[in-house]
TrEMBL record:
Its cofactor is Mg(2+). Its EC number is 2.7.1.50. GO terms for biological process: thiamine biosynthetic process; thiamine diphosphate biosynthetic process. GO terms for molecular function: ATP binding; hydroxyethylthiazole kinase activity; magnesium ion binding. It is an enzyme of class 2 (transferase). Gene3D superfamilies: 3.40.1190.20. The gene is thiM. Coiled coil: none annotated. Keywords: ATP-binding, Kinase, Magnesium, Metal-binding, Nucleotide-binding, Thiamine biosynthesis, Transferase. It comes from Oceanobacillus polygoni. Substrate binds at M39, A187. Transmembrane segments: none annotated. The lineage of its organism: Bacteria, Bacillati, Bacillota, Bacilli, Bacillales. This is Hydroxyethylthiazole kinase. InterPro entries: Hyethyz_kinase, Ribokinase-like.
Length: 259
């Protein structure tokens, strides 16, 4: 059975501690692909959700002390139960508060994948000092930098940009699907981070899961732009394209180069 068909059959439960900008969009994107999302950010239920989810997504946007505490609790609970955890380290390096919490997550939670823009990945690698805000401040997406981060944290790295890089520290894939209109709406990266959840829940090899997720998302963006007139109509068109995406379309349109 294809990966998307399996997601639609399993309806994986994706627990997201995410930001208030992305929350609604990410929930809709997850439903569109066939997953079942829950958004919550109180530390009081993070452990319970972290124990029963099929994947857990920790997104550092609009960070508060409560959200940080909830992320650590959910991440640890997921680890104890063998549930994959995805980290979106938004604007790491931008402020001490977020950088400290991100470092605590990185050192205490075992991650299935880190999904971040190329600038944030460069900060994690130590080759760039700070990301100013959520937008990437570098254009080039260097596979070697992504590989360094994958090795450093023993995880899969999904570093996004014009070309997305997916690596587990050994294998490297350049994923070339997508559309620049993704840069003209907010939270396209946040939705992608949540979107990786259902893929790591049904594909055991997280590197392959990451490639399939970014490729599917990129193809949906391309198909959405056949219908959209600009950013406003792109958002619902992207949700429509995600809803109608199939494994056959992914096979037909995928542009993946393994190095
Ligand atoms: N220059 C570009 N051209 C085409 N697609 C792009 C470009 N840069 C990023 N993308 C795509 O946009 C999506 C989001 O990636 P991006 O690197 O912008 O994440 P992000 O900065 O974390 O996003 P956000 O913080 O807005 O949620 C990905 O699917 C990526 O492939
Ligand atoms: C704009 C914005 N601010 C905090 S999180 C977020 C969503 C994109 O990362
Ligand atoms: Mg981001």
């Amino acid at each position: 059975m294809g990966v998307i068909a399996k997601i639609k059959e399993d309806k994986p439960f994706i627990f997201n501690i995410t930001n208030e900008v992305a929350s609604n969009f990410a929930a809709n994107g997850l439903i569109a692909i066939g997953a079942s999302p829950a958004m919550s950010h109180t530390p009081r239920e993070a452990k319970d959700y972290g124990e029963i989810a099929d994947a857990v997504v920790l997104n550092l946007g609009t960070l508060t002390e409560d959200r940080g505490e909830a992320m650590l609790k959910a991440g640890k609970a997921a680890n104890e139960n063998g549930i994959p955890v995805i980290l979106d380290p938004i604007a790491v390096g931008g402020t001490d508060f977020r950088t400290n919490i991100i470092n605590e997550i990185l050192t205490t939670v075992k991650l299935a994948a880190i999904r971040a823009n190329a600038g944030e990945i460069a900060v994690l690698a130590g080759t760039l000092d700070e990301a100013k805000g959520p937008d990437s401040i570098i254009q080039e997406n260097d596979p070697e930098i992504a590989k360094t981060v994958a090795k450093k944290y023993d995880t899969v790295v999904i570093s996004t940009g014009e070309v997305d890089v997916v690596t587990d520290g050994e294998r490297i894939a350049l994923c070339k699907n997508g559309h620049e209109m993704l840069q003209n709406i907010t939270a396209s990266g946040c939705l992608l981070s949540s979107f990786v959840g259902p893929f790591v829940s049904v594909v055991d090899d997280f590197y392959e899961a990451g490639i399939y997720a970014v490729t599917s998302y990129g193809i949906a963006a391309e198909l959405a732009m056949e219908k959209a007139a600009g950013p406003g109509t792109f958002i619902p068109a992207l949700l429509d394209a995600l809803y109608f995406l199939t494994d056959e379309k992914v096979e037909k349109y995928k542009q993946v180069q393994e190095l």
